[in-house]
Amino acid sequence: MENRNFWNDVAKYGAVLGGVLALSMLFESYLSLSGRAGLMMLMVVEWLLVVVVHYLLLHRYTRRYRESFPVEEGFPFGRAYGYIMLLSLFAGAIVGVVQVVYLHMIVGYEAYTAQLMASMQSYLSTMGANASMEPMLAEAFSQMQTAATPSVLQTAWGGIFNSLFFGAVFGLIIAGVLSRQPQLFDKEEE
User: Fold this and answer.
1) pLDDT for 20
2) Residue 19 has what pLDDT?
3) Ordered DSSP codes for 154-181
4) Rounded distance between C-alpha atoms, residue 159 and residue 95, angstroms
5) Parts of the chain with a pLDDT under 70
6) Which residues does residue 161 pair with via DSSP β-bridges, in sequence order?
7) Residue 43: exposed, middle, or buried by beta-carbon count in 10 A (0-12, 13-18, 19+)?
């Protein structure tokens, strides 16, 4: 019974986290494809907000998981970190699926890169790129045009990797804060 609740919680909380990250990815794609310079600052604010929400959700779900263990048993760092990585894996799988559907089925990867280059050129023309940057930008655009289309698995792995990376970094902090040693004796007995 306990194992079933564990996997249900991991799937449920991972789905919530994955939904937040997938919506963020879609919103950031919309902003980057718009080509409007004013929206780029909004993208930075949104990214920072999502990083904070991602951390807070991982912290909350791990704290909730810790409460299922008695004080006498403790809550080791490894258990907390493993739980965070499982949540991140589930969330990353959702983000990966959303990326595949969006980039390969809805928009199309070639259309996405063409729109992205057009919006970058529009953004750079409004910002005024200097002459020393033009060869570097021309090289970047050339590489984007000639780059091979990633496979569906590569696209899905991109979402999983990003979620696991942030989970690994946040997990070090959260697991360090929430882990606790077992209390073998009551305070009153001492």
Assistant:
1) 96
2) 96
3) HHHHHHHHHHHHHHHHHHHHHHHHH-B-
4) 5
5) 1-3, 37, 124-134, 137, 184-190
6) none
7) middle
Question: Domain spans of the chain?
Answer: 2-189
Are residues 176 and 61 in contact, defined by beta-carbon separation less than 8 angstroms? no
Instruction: Decide: residue 27, CB within 10 A, 0-12 exposed, 13-18 middle, 19+ buried.
Output: middle
Quote the pLDDT of residue 113.
81
Answer whether 178's CB lies under 8 Å from 75's CB: yes
Helix then strand count (H, E) for the chain reads: 6, 0
Which residues, including other chains, have CB under 8 Å from residue 173's CB and lie 6 or more apart? 55
The pLDDT, as a whole number, for residue 1 is: 41
pLDDT on residue 186: 60
Q: CA torsion 17→18→23→25, rounded to 10°? A: 120
Tell me which DSSP letter residue 133 carries: G
For residue 93, the model assigns a pLDDT of: 96
In the chain, the amino acid numbered 83 is Y
SS3 75: strand
Q: Please state, in angstroms and rounded to a whole number, the distance separating the CA atoms of residues 96 and 109.
A: 15
| CA 88 to chain CA centroid, nearest Å | 8
